[in-house]
Records
---
Amino acid sequence: MSATQGEPDDEPNDGHLATKWLGQDAVTSVHPQAQSPLFRLPPEMRRLIFLIALAETNVDTKPYVPGISESHFNDVSLEQMKDIYTRRLRHRMFDLECPAWLRPGSVCPQTIPLDLLVTCKRVYNETHRLIPYIKIHKFYLVHGPGATSKSSRGPKPALQYIPPPGVEVRNLHLLTQLRYFRYSRLSLQHQLAKVASDIEHLQLTLRPLSAIVPGRWITLFHEPFLVNPYTLSSTSLEDMEFTRKRMARGETLQIATDGWAGAFLDFPALRTLTMEFDHNELQQENLERLAQWSRQWRLPLPGNRVLVSETPPSMRTWRGMRTHDDWNCHVCGKPFPQPRTQCENCQWRARGRGPRMITWTVTWVARKSEP
Ligand SMILES: [Zn+2]
């Protein structure tokens, strides 16, 4: 989500940021700070500066799994990989200290540095109500911090998102499992019921983790990425391809609103939806086809509105861990890499790493439904 999403209405044009939307906690009698170049800028410029200054940052000192940071996932070459296959590392990469929900952006908590707010009363007035528009609340469904290892820190896993007391939740990032997600509207309805009426920007990350056994080394990276908003029952690659071709021929298909794709009808304030599809390189082609096809999905919203995708999807790659692979090497079939292996995938495994991971990102915006 971009920093420009903080958009309180009713902007006055007297050079001050709007105060109408300030709560009673605003300081009403303040020095105008006319000597400050910051306050001689147009208010929209100043807001942009504040939004950048107040962007969320990683709390690197509190990693969810000690030793695992963002750089762990850099998509580097084998030659650049310094790690070697030590007993400790081998143990680590095979056991639960490296759970499969770890991914870029999910290695530690994030926070908004609030020091700026105490520098000046006028700065405080103009910024403190921006915070709910900047803060992206994260909800890890079952597989997440605190769920899979004694050494991983963070909140305990949950089946429903409970917002912190007194906090407005405008932006929510739900990291969920493909299997939990794709069958029913009720799942998402229940998981986000406490905040559904307030959310304006929803981000969903779907990945093929186990549906049944949290805290165990079980993933579903051997399965293709299957999701289809036009079918209620389970889908298949053939079924997705069939649906895609019918749409390409110009057929108008109905979204299965009892399925997950109808869940957005419960989000009256929703303005954007972002979906991330995570899988490993074995599914590269299927994932790209899915991302391109998903741009044609028109997901219904309440109030005669619909979510449409108006921008091309984007793709990024990152280096996964052993848990993002099958137990046996998917290329040569061996469970453990041999010291002088010719298999490139096993050379990665020997360094404690897994396959290259692919993330496709697709964004939808709310629009009036065409008659
Ligand atoms: Zn191999």
---
Amino acid sequence: MAVRNANEKNAKGKAKSTRTPSGRAVAQRLESLQRAGITHIPKAAQTPSTAQLPDADRQTSGEDLEIIAAEVAQCVRCEELAQTRTQTVFGVGNPHARLVFLGEAPGADEDREGIPFVGRAGQLLTKIIEACTLSRDDVYILNILKCRPPGNRNPSPSESDNCREYLNRQLAAIKPEYICCLGSVAAQNLLDTDTPIGKLRGSFHDYQGIKVLCTYHPAYLLRNPPAKRMVWEDMQILMAEMGIELPAK
Ligand code: SF4
């Protein structure tokens, strides 16, 4: 904002004698700044949403996600997956998200679209995110594997190992504070444990300094709707930790 322009507006206001006490204080402040030789005041930075970055440091991502995505698109480390995939499914969302949702691998819909969580389970995930007063654009959504295993089988240990470098680089670029693992495969794979999802959920774990909350996969909720209550309990724990207030139900 230019001080000169503000003063011109204030001068017009003075002529009409409509200046309020707070307006007078602003005008006096601007005049004293001008006397001090300050002619411009920078615009205030836009306040990030609660789900986005809290500080400027996080705006400086380690590595550009687009560079990693270009590398992933050419990857043939898993011979079978590279031959059978339609395309790689890298991830989608806010590159500075505080919260990342992590699934296991793309399914048929995701393989076709190139976007994670777009099928029926993905639509349910979107509803869960929106129930948390967020949108898919506030968070980042990605998978352990970037390629669809044929027949939607679970990722093999060697495939998970092959793809871990990309996941770690994505996380290093995004710098999330929280990871929400969706389902036992993602949770056990990330945390390198055999503990069942029923025991992993409900409390926080750690992955490279990032707080991890595990919950059921939306596809499981489609088969077992009563489990939605437990996922909602997990989301309440997560949102409370993130300082995001949920509407009373
Ligand atoms: S799953 Fe990951 S490591 Fe394997 S081929 Fe796809 S991108 Fe490469």
---
Amino acid sequence: MPGDKEEQEGSAELREKPRREEEEDEEAVDAMRVCYQGFDPAAYLQFNYTPPRADFQRADSIVPWKLACLHRAFSEGDMQGEVLVDVGSGPTLYQVMSGCEVFGRVVLTDFLEVNRRELQRWLQDGSSSLDWTPYLEYVCQLEGRRPSASSEKAARLRSVVSDVLPIDVHRPCPLAPGTIPANGADCLVSCFCLESVSPDLAVLTRALGHISSLLRPGGHLLLIGALGESYYLGAAGLRIPVVPLDEAQVCSSLKSSGYQLLQLSIYTLPAEMRVGVDDVTGVFFAKARKP
Ligand SMILES: C[S@@+](CC[C@H](N)C(=O)[O-])C[C@H]1O[C@@H](n2cnc3c(N)ncnc32)[C@H](O)[C@@H]1O
């Protein structure tokens, strides 16, 4: 019957549209993966983790702000358990320098082998494209310890990092099966990852859902990310596109993934921190709980 045919064609169209959209999403995600093939860990560290962005003498420098947020979150006493997973570690270690005192097992992860190798080098013999000592000293000071306790903190960090694993946040199971406990980690940390590996907000929110499957119910997520950023340099001359987020989008993405937002702090980038390696305007820090 003609009516039925039209109906069938109509519903076929309805069925195909999401599939087409899914294919477009996958193509856009693949394009992001290709972008990352040119990522240079040493250049990225130089651009983002040296002064003025990492100036421990300046109260308005971006790295001390991030370290203070992480220190506060881990000192509040509400995050407990054994396993902390850092999602998209890149070549950096600052994000686990407070958490390594609270959790007995820390798992670092990244999509790129060059970044995992960079982390392994520091874990094995302290060699690295960046000297992490001033970071360790600063976090010791935040904890009320002498800066010279930094070597103890470095030893603690080396002793609790159990693995440096490959991850892909665009896969429903981002880590290989069996690499973390079946009921999930007790805490997830992720810094500047989701917005800088996703083509748009919908895919970012989907990736947030994927990583949430790594967290046990009742566990905490600490998310740090860029606001208003459309690109950053992953190597000299390599512009990696970023989803330009605002505060409301961060909140709605967390809410739609089922999180209870416990705290949101915002850092506005002073003019002196705009050093031509990205167009970020601010940074958010979110502490959330998975019910
Ligand atoms: C902007 S860097 C952030 C690095 C570090 N967390 C920091 O705070 O500076 C983004 C990281 O995401 C990683 N990445 C790229 N694609 C990814 C994917 N599909 N899944 C997980 N991580 C990915 C990159 O290799 C890179 O290390």
